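Internal tracking record. Fields below are filled automatically when a chain is submitted to the structure queue. Please do not edit lines marked as system-generated. If the sequence contains nonstandard residues, flag them in the REMARKS field before resubmitting.
Queue: standard
Priority: normal
Entity type: single polypeptide chain
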Amino acid sequence: MKEDTCSKCKKLNSLYKIDDTIIEKKESWKGLTKIENGKQIIKNVPIVIETHKMTYKCKNCGNIEIKYKETEYENTRYSHRI
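SYSTEM-GENERATED OUTPUT FOLLOWS
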């Protein structure tokens, strides 16, 4: 995969994750399409968006790379209100 290729030595499948830190966490809302009683409706559901800072090291040359990724999931703290 391209994500596993070292940007310095260009060796394929050489990166391994050495750290994954959540650097930001925010609450938001997302429109979700649901079917209720045979009708399609859009409901706003609470979500949490996390920004991860992931640090990788190359097995071949020792290069350190940092990548960022956002993940989101339903915020169960508020989902009972829907």
